[in-house]
Design a protein that fits this description.
The complex is a heterodimer of chains A (607) and B (582).
Chain A: H1 3-11, H2 26-29, H3 31-41, H4 45-77, H5 85-134, H6 137-143, H7 145-187, H8 189-196, H9 199-236, H10 238-243, H11 247-299, H12 305-347, E1 368-377, E2 380-390, E3 395-399, H13 406-413, E4 421-426, E5 429-430, H14 436-442, E6 443-447, H15 457-462, H16 470-480, H17 483-487, H18 506-520, E7 524-528, H19 536-550, E8 554-558, H20 562-565, E9 570-575, E10 578-583, H21 585-590, H22 594-606
Parallel strand pairs in A: 3-8, 3-9, 6-7, 7-8
Antiparallel strand pairs in A: 1-2, 1-4, 4-5, 9-10
Helix pairs in contact in A: 1-11, 3-12, 4-5, 4-7, 4-12, 5-7, 7-8, 7-12, 8-11, 9-11, 9-12, 11-12, 16-18
Chain B: H1 10-13, H2 17-49, H3 54-103, H4 106-110, H5 114-156, H6 158-205, H7 207-213, H8 216-268, H9 274-315, E1 337-344, E2 354-361, E3 366-371, H10 377-383, E4 392-397, E5 400-401, H11 407-412, E6 414-417, H12 428-433, H13 441-450, H14 476-488, E7 494-498, H15 506-519, E8 524-528, E9 540-545, E10 548-553, H16 555-561, H17 563-569, H18 575-581
Parallel strand pairs in B: 3-8, 3-9, 6-7, 7-8
Antiparallel strand pairs in B: 1-2, 1-4, 4-5, 9-10
Helix pairs in contact in B: 2-3, 2-5, 2-9, 3-5, 5-6, 5-9, 6-8, 6-9, 8-9, 13-14, 14-15, 16-17, 17-18
């Protein structure tokens, strides 16, 4: 069995393997990439024009060099005749000025283009981050956080690489190629033609390289993804790796994918290390041909030695940067692919857009209604014609088995999704007419995830309302019952929670999440499995806190543990996207319906 | 010099000495051919052209072609072999880096963000490789080119050669200035990028919270502050680079001006041939690219040094949990687990999580661990398979200190299920077997049955179905049962299960409990309990409070006798219970 097949076996089979890599340089030319490029460049057109002028000046200074040397030989040194030192000094003076201009223009160009690059990157980062944050949750679920992270990190790095080095070199080379061709023909048409004979070969060679390196580049990318996924997952789950002694197996898999990455890189390196020297060889051959024919012309007296010297020097300037191009080719490919992917994200329209003419809602009351709401997620129907209304201040529990649509309902109330048909209203206003800011002030969701951000415990609570004072923050923690364990930590509220809050137990994280929601003080509170990872004392504490927390608020509670549900005024039992029971908990317990059977199962589980 | 830090990578080149020698020779050869070309041009100009001898022109031009072809072969060899050697080195280094990380204890990983470890394994190791393959090569090439070209120049005209050298000397000075400036910039740029990456990761993973509170502007501001710091810092870097590159370009050109002037005067005075002058100028041109490269190589070496520093931060952390001298395998295990005077605190922390803790789990017995949130139950569970090590006291398996048993043997006797199931993006089979060598199909089937994980047969590709983040999505209950099946696979005599029930609904909970009851039959079990329903599985319960075992007994006994225990496990709010808790 081949190494590749063996390596794939452990991965198992999955449907719809996504190839994340758009083909090569073509990406740069795709329409949406062009649109993005134009949008990024627009604010800097002035600076770009300046950069273009500078690069031309710089190139002119540089390209004048062989010409002036030729002139110096022919007019100043005058081989075969008596020299003319005054003319020589004059020409050398001009040469010195040209070089000084070249140096200054070069410096100015690097500063200007560097600034443009840094600004473009900054703007792109800012735009992208803001845009991604505006996209709906369904986008995040479909796209996965890993890919979003790589859009914002490695893809932008790829563009950075292009802006920092590649682009300038390529533009300079292009200018050199065009200008040198013109100069050569101007200096001597016959000899210029000899020099140009190599051009079709250069073009052919470049084409060969382009096609193959696009393939090798994709192979490299595919391999690196395998390396990264295995690396991140196995180190992220290091506890399980150690507990089950998976280290040797992991090492085997890692070395295999790593070797594939290496082989792809060796292939890509072989291409580049053939292309560059081949271009160089063409340069040598052209030089030989020029010397042969040019020497003949000089001997015949049809060409001066100075012009021949200039020719030889120009050929150097012509072929040297061409070799460099191969080094930047990968940079271009990477940037092209990155740009294409970035453009794809930018193109993604927020499925939960801001209202065009918002209805202002500074102080919501908290009445929530579903008006014949139907919702389908990725074409699959989840909720069917849900219709109910809840007055401000009511506490509603949503009950049902996994997949019944409880979480979807919660997300519709928070407007993480918009309904496919019907509408969800707050105080009678369609959520789609309320600005995000107003809505978020009025409606807050606490989920089971209890995600903590890096920083201190206090900062994580303040996330609920950044403008709150320290006193208010501690007050919120006290109300929830989180104050004591926080104070027991080394630096109290200023304790760093470390990576995703590993310092805290899941119950403690959840209490922090509660305090965060309490501090936010919303009119409508949604608790989506918010207590499920708490231990009983914490849950009891939270239950008690819930009474304070829920007072005067509309609340929706989703919980598997019915103890949490018991505080509700009203229970909606969901089954397969429909409301099948609706009533007060005591009332439903008496009926012989789903709720009563769920309740019985729960009571038994406590025994 | 900071490059000295690179010496630890020298052993990685050792297996490829052959390649390196071939590369070095072809490097030298290609340089000789490149340097001989201006010489040939000189002969052409001073010989056939000046002497009007067309007959000798053709063979001379032919010589140029031959040298060009030879140069081509040598350069291809040079680049190919340097690439192969350095890529192989990079791969070996990354393999070792990964192996090292795998051996570092769990508490090390608790303190590192995965993004930081990833950037070290991918980009930092890549930076070291690029420097070794391109940077060092350019560095060598520059030196050799200098020596060879300077020797040829000396031979043509020693005064002119001296002028050229004088023009080039300041380069060393400017380079050094840049060197010092750029080191600081590169390091701070890397750190800033790390911070920004953290913000990005948190945005992408915490998006639900951010959206729930409408804190997009807050995150945006944090991100923009970091991004704009990066912008400002990279502008400083660009300025430093622009200065250096300009100097590096200008100085060789200046020497060209001097050569043309002085050389021209020499030619006019008959002290030098015109061909010699042209060759001389060609040599100056030969120096321009290497000069350019100095700046590039220097910034690369800066990056490489920073990268290797960052790698060393990881490579220098020694595994704290490893086989100690004299550790041996435990052939047979009855499953008696004893915690004797155990104290535990996290590394670099003064605060005791567990202290003076004594507990014995007899073979075949299941002991439940009950305690309030943050009481150290999970840490206690981690001490068994040495995911953490005790800070004082000892943990004994069948009377042997676990630190005297090889890790491999110890962990083979313990099945562990974590609170979070931890599935990898791999096939179900791989997730169950986890690379353990011993597993037969019957064992696999039995484990799946015992854990009630029969759903795996119905997955689209059965056991070959990929699960985890990049594969088929399983429900919370399915994930838990898979984790249980993994734990019981190979029938370990000791099972440690960390409350696997927290995130499942009532029906699933019942199924899993049934599964748990079956897996715990006839083996020793340590069960971290958060839910009273699970306690039915425990023969005895240990109440953990204040970092130690506050009480041990059956569930019934403790319910009767212990206020705190009752407080922890009663459903209803009861003021007396709350008092016990306080």
């Amino acid at each position: 069995m081949s190494a590749a097949a063996r390596a794939d076996e452990w991965r198992g089979v999955a449907a719809g393997e996504v190839d994340d890599f758009s083909p090569s340089v073509a990406g740069l030319l795709r329409r949406r990439s062009r649109v993005l490029l134009a949008r990024l460049a627009r604010p800097y057109l002035g600076s770009m024009a300046l950069a273009a002028v500078l690069i031309l000046v710089r190139s002119a200074g540089y390209l004048a060099l062989p010409y002036l040397i030729g002139l110096g030989i022919d007019q100043g040194i005058r081989p075969g005749r008596s020299g003319n030192p005054q003319t020589l000094v004059l020409i050398v003076g001009v040469l010195a000025i040209a070089l000084l201009v070249n140096a200054l223009a070069n410096y100015a160009f690097m500063r200007v283009s560097g600034r443009i690059g840094a600004n473009i990157l900054f703007n792109l980062r800012r735009t992208l981050f803001a845009h991604v944050q505006e996209l709906s949750l369904s986008f995040f679920e479909r796209y996965t956080s890993g890919r979003i992270i790589s859009r914002l990190t490695s893809d932008i790095d790829a563009l950075n690489e292009l802006l920092a080095t590649g682009l300038t070199s390529v533009i300079t080379s292009l200018i050199s190629v065009v200008a040198i061709t013109a100069i050569l023909i101007h200096l001597d048409v016959r000899l210029g033609m000899v020099a140009l004979v190599a051009m079709p070969l250069v073009v052919g060679l470049t084409y060969w390289f382009r096609v193959n390196s696009a393939r090798s580049y994709r192979a490299v990318r595919r391999a690196i993804v395998l390396v990264i996924v295995h690396y991140v997952e196995s180190l992220g789950g290091i506890r399980a790796v150690h507990a089950f002694r998976r280290e040797p197996r992991n090492q085997e898999i890692f070395e295999d994918v790593n070797a594939r990455y290496r082989d792809a890189n060796i292939w890509s390196n072989r291409l580049a290390s053939t292309f560059g020297p081949a271009i160089n060889l063409l340069g040598r051959l052209t030089t030989a041909a020029v010397l042969l024919y040019g020497g003949y012309l000089v001997v015949q007296g049809q060409l001066t030695l100075g012009v021949l010297t200039a020719f030889v020097l120009y050929l150097r300037q012509f072929f040297d940067p061409m070799q460099e191009l191969s080094q930047f080719y990968n940079v271009f490919q990477a940037a092209g692919a990155a740009l294409e992917k970035l453009a794809g994200v930018i193109e993604e329209a927020p499925t939960v857009p801001e209202p065009s003419s918002p209805i202002s809602m500074h102080e919501a009351k908290g009445a929530v209604a579903f008006d014949h709401v139907t919702f389908a997620y990725r074409e699959k129907p989840v909720l069917h014609d849900i219709d109910f209304s809840v007055p401000a201040g009511a506490v509603v529990a949503l009950v049902g088995e996994t997949g019944a649509g409880k979480t979807t309902m919660a997300r519709l109330i928070a407007r993480f999704y918009d309904p496919t048909a019907g509408r969800v209203t707050l105080d009678g206003v369609d959520l789609r007419s309320i600005t995000v800011q107003d809505l978020r002030r009025a409606v807050v969701v606490v989920t089971q995830e209890s995600f903590l951000f890096s920083g201190t415990v206090g900062e994580n609570i303040l996330f609920g309302r950044p403008s709150a004072t320290r006193g208010e923050m501690e007050q919120a923690a006290r109300a929830i019952g989180a104050h004591d364990f926080i104070m027991a930590m080394p630096n109290g509220y200023d304790t760093d929670v470390r990576r995703r809050g590993v310092r805290l137990s899941s119950g403690q994280r959840q209490l922090v999440a509660f305090a965060r929601a309490f501090l936010a003080d919303p009119r409508v509170l949604i608790l989506d499995e918010a207590t499920s990872s708490l231990d009983l004392p914490s849950e009891r504490l939270v239950q008690r806190a819930l009474r304070t927390l829920l007072r005067g608020r509309t609340a929706f509670i989703i919980a598997h543990r019915l103890s949490t549900v018991e505080v509700a005024d009203r229970v909606l039992v969901l089954d397969a996207g429909r409301i099948v029971e609706d009533g007060a908990p005591a009332e439903l317990r008496r009926d012989d319906g789903r709720y009563s059977s769920l309740h019985r199962a729960w009571v038994e589980s406590l025994a | 010099m900071g490059l000295f830090a690179l010496r630890r990578y020298v052993p990685y080149l050792r297996p490829y000495v052959g390649l390196v020698v071939v590369f070095g020779l072809s490097q030298l050869g290609s340089l000789v051919t490149a340097a001989s070309i201006p010489k040939v041009i000189q002969f052409i100009i001073d010989g056939p052209i000046t002497e009007h001898n067309l007959g000798r022109l053709v063979p001379m031009a032919g010589l140029l072609v031959v040298i060009g072809a030879l140069e081509f072969v040598l350069i291809v060899m040079r680049r190919h072999y340097s690439g192969v050697a350095s890529l192989r080195m990079e791969t070996d280094l990354r393999n070792d880096f990964y192996a090292h990380l795998q051996n570092l204890q769990v508490s090390f990983h608790d303190n590192w963000q995965s993004g930081q470890l990833l950037s070290r394994a991918i980009s930092d190791i890549g930076t070291v490789r690029r420097f070794v393959s391109f940077g060092l090569i350019w560095f060598l090439q520059t030196i050799v080119t200098f020596v060879v070209v300077f020797a040829l120049m000396l031979q043509l005209d020693w005064q002119l050669a001296l002028v050229v050298v004088l023009c080039m000397v300041p380069i060393a000075f400017f380079s050094n200035v840049f060197h010092n400036k750029y080191r600081v910039i590169a390091r701070s740029l890397q750190d800033l990028t790390g911070d920004m990456t953290t913000t990005i990761e948190e945005m992408a993973t915490g998006v639900r919270i951010i959206k729930a509170f409408g804190r997009m502007p807050l995150m945006q501001k944090r991100f923009e502050d970091e991004a704009s710091q990066i912008r400002v810092t990279s502008l400083t870097g660009i300025k430093a680079r622009a200065e250096l590159w300009t100097e590096l370009n200008f100085l060789p050109n200046l020497s060209l001006v001097a050569v043309l002037l002085l050389g021209g005067v020499n030619v006019v005075a008959g002290r030098m041939t015109i061909g010699g002058l042209v060759a001389f100028m060609n040599y100056v041109f030969m120096l321009i690219w290497p000069m350019d490269a100095i700046g590039w190589v220097l910034s690369m070496s800066e990056e490489c040094q920073t990268a290797s520093q960052r790698l060393n931060e990881v490579l220098d952390s020694r595994p704290e949990i490893s086989d100690r001298h004299g550790a041996r395998a435990l052939e047979r295990c009855r499953g008696r687990l004893e915690f004797r005077g155990v104290g535990f605190r996290y590394p670099k922390s003064d605060e005791w999580v567990l202290r003076d803790l004594n507990l014995v789990v007899e073979p075949g017995e299941t002991v439940g661990l009950v305690g309030r949130t943050g009481s150290g139950k999970t840490s206690l569970a981690y001490l068994g398979p040495r995911l953490y090590d005790v800070s004082e006291g000892s943990v004994l398996l069948d009377g042997v200190d676990v630190r005297d048993i090889t890790l491999r043997s110890l962990r083979s006797h313990i099945g562990f299920a974590f609170e979070d199931p931890i599935l990898f993006s791999a096939s179900v089979h791989e997730n169950l077997v986890m690379g353990r060598p011993i597993v037969s199909d019957q064992e696999l089937k039995r484990a799946i049955d015992v854990a009630h994980a029969g759903f795996v047969w119905d997955l689209p590709w059965g056991l070959e179905t990929r699960v985890g983040e990049q594969g088929y999505t399983l429900s919370g209950g399915q994930r838990q049962r898979l984790a249980l099946a993994r734990a019981v696979l190979g029938a370990p005599p000791l099972l440690i299960l960390d409350d696997p029930l927290s995130s499942v609904d009532v029906h699933t909970e019942a199924t899993i409990e049934e599964a748990l009851a079956r897996v715990l039959e006839g083996v020793t079990g340590l069960l971290v309990v958060h839910r009273p329903s699970t306690l039915a599985l425990a023969d005895r319960v240990a109440l953990i409070e204040g970092g130690t075992v506050a009480a041990v007994g059956t569930h019934g006994e403790l319910m009767r006798s212990n206020d705190l225990y009752r407080a922890l496990l009663s459903q209803e709010y009861d003021p007396r219970a709350e008092e016990a808790l306080a």
